[in-house]
Amino acid sequence: MTILDPADFVLEMPHAPRGTVPAGYAEMIAAVRELEDRITEAAPPAELVADIRRTLTALSSRLAEHAVPESERICGTLLDEPGRGQMLIPPLQVDEVCAEPLPSVRGRVTFGPRHIGGNGAVHGGVIPLLFDDFFGICAHVGRRPLARTAYLRTDYRAVTPVGTELQVLARLDREEGRKRFLVGELRDGERVCAEVTALFVQLKPGQP
Length: 208
Prior knowledge:
The chain is α+β, with helices and mostly antiparallel strands. 24% of the residues lie in helices and 30% in strands. It has one domain (1-208): Hotdog Thioesterase (Thiol Ester Dehydrase, Chain A, Roll).
């Protein structure tokens, strides 16, 4: 398959039913990401800072009027959109999900100016965040029961560039009872930027 299909996951995988998302919602998320990039790059004068602050405060007040419980929120439930329409994680686009013989997932991501740690390189903490979410997808392919991260190790092999489309790979290496061991790579073509391993543990009944 080439997209994330809710039918391939257990019910705990949050997703917005098709046709229920307001028109333009994904574009709104993309616009917020772009705003973060522009703020990161800019050295604005005080009057522009004040104007933007007033605008953002007004928008926040309008959105606050429509706050809903977590189970009813749209953010993070758009499985076909980069980063699932979630603004915290990088805008990862999933391209391929395979269930057999063991789950594997392929995708791509382009880090923006907001992800810079210094000297044009991606902040080291962004990469584990990316893989925690990406592994979460891989760990639940094939309607596997809900699991959570027990550990995640990142080995940095090369500087990760900003503004370049990178390849992201993950696979379920093995399962031992409730334990799911995952491995992944972040690549810039033939160059490996990071190698990542993780353990996800299936929740017991009643665990949050």
